[in-house]
Amino acid sequence: MTFRWITESDGLDVFVDHLITEPRYAMDTEFHRERTYFPKLALVQIASSAEIVLIDPLVCDLAPLR
């Protein structure tokens, strides 16, 4: 199983187009909460049958995941 980082919104668009064709996938999120009660999304991990993708939500627009 391979993995890759997505740090650009264009790369996320291409990945989501591929993900739509997958029969199933798994998604996990990680939040950063330091000195606050309000969590901030820090990482999105998605695994499909072909690869694992790590998405940096601090630099990518996550709208395609809707």
Q: Number of DSSP strands?
A: 4
**Could you list the spans in which at least 5 consecutive residues all have pLDDT below 50?**
none
Q: Distance between termini?
A: 26 Å
Helix content: 10-25%
Radius of gyration: 13 Å
Give the amount of beta strand, in percent: 35-45%
- The best one-word shape is globular
SSE series: EHEEE
**Average residue-wise pLDDT:** 92
The major pleated sheet works out as:
4 strands, mixed
Assembly annotation: single chain
Q: Strands of the biggest beta sheet: in what spatial order? A: 1-4-3-2
| Helix run count | 1
Structural class: alpha+beta
Describe the fold and architecture.
The protein is an alpha+beta fold and 66 residues long. It is built from one helix and four strands, in the order βαβββ. The chain has a four-stranded mixed sheet with strand order 1-4-3-2. The longest helix is centred in the first third of the chain and has 11 residues, at 9-19.
List keywords for this structure.
single chain; 66 residues; alpha+beta; 4-stranded mixed β-sheet
Topology:
Layout: E1 2-6, H1 9-19, E2 26-32, E3 40-47, E4 51-55
Parallel strand pairs: 1-4
Antiparallel strand pairs: 2-3, 3-4
